[in-house]
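Dear colleague,

Thank you for sharing your sequence with our group. We've completed the structure prediction you requested, and as agreed, I am returning the results in plain text so they can be pasted directly into your records. Please verify that the sequence below matches your submission; if there's any discrepancy, let me know and we will rerun it promptly.
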Amino acid sequence: MFDKLPVSSKTEKILTKSLDEEISVEEANHLMNIKGHDLYPLLATADFLRHQIVGDNVTFINNCNINFTNICTVRCGFCAFGKDANDPDAYILNDEQILEKAEGAVLNGAREFTLMGGVHPDADIDYYLHLLTLLKDNYPDVTIHGFSPTMVRDACLASGMDMVEGFEVLKDAGLDTLPGTAAEILTDRSREIICPEKVSVAEWVDAVKTAQEVGIKGSATIMYGHVETLEERVEHIDIIRQIQQDTHGFTEFIPMTFMHEYSPIFMEGQTNLGATGTQDLKLYAVSRLMLRDIIPNIQVSWVKMGFRFAQVSLIAGTNDLGGTLGGDELSEASGAPDGVDASINTFARMVRDLGRHPIERNSTYTEFYEIE
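Please find the predicted structure tokens below.
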């Protein structure tokens, strides 16, 4: 495959191996550090594996983000969204506002509500049950992809409830899938810098595994391009791989490049923030080579990348464009380059321009719908 390409012998050996089996952490670290002529063979190999594993369909979901509050007690250094309760820009959506946003999304064909918010100090399991019941009573056929492992863990603590029971009652009330957010970067060294008040790596892993054990599948994410090293990015992917080997509960892997311009750590003088374009592409490609078909769906975050670079990233081993979003206040606060609302037609044009097939999906990649 590499006979005509000017690729180094070590990179060629790793890429050849990756055609038949997953690569090791050591091999992934080598690929994260390559430059020059080695880059294109990496992308080509990842794209070839994507084709072998999931074919030429590019999937996405018509969904709507409902960020019910921006009040957050866990003030992370990377987040420009969260506010103190006494901040003049703080808000909590009431039931009428939530249903108004949901109704507009449903009229636009939404199949999923992504129910997220800050870690509110008064949010317990009963509050989250109220939100689920409110939406499911009015829109029983719309999937709810809601909360985060940190939010559920903290709500369980506030309610004096263990996490098994907490996830069970949330599932019974209509929580269909769990976002993989709050993972950020799964190394305690970096977490101590960017989110010291958030759960530790072990606590995040425990929460995710607990959700999956009670039957709530969900996504896995990585947020990169802040204070972590290239090796920590690989360590994170390997942790996700190990969890998936144990549980098979992740439906997708979502790399999210850090948008630093309005982040507290940037405002406070932290430098060298933000991944480069080649680092973005290498992360997608290495993720494909490490995860292969154990997590077959690797998602491009168009809201972080912008439409044009998201399209380019589809040739680096990825196969999913995420959701139309219908608004994403978290990314908007960070300066999303192409806004926070996409259309099915925009996605379809991007995909067809690559010679691939746009397909709408549900939250768990079990139902698919052709695009006209």
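Summary note from our side: The chain is about 45% helix and 10% strand.

Kind regards,
the structure core
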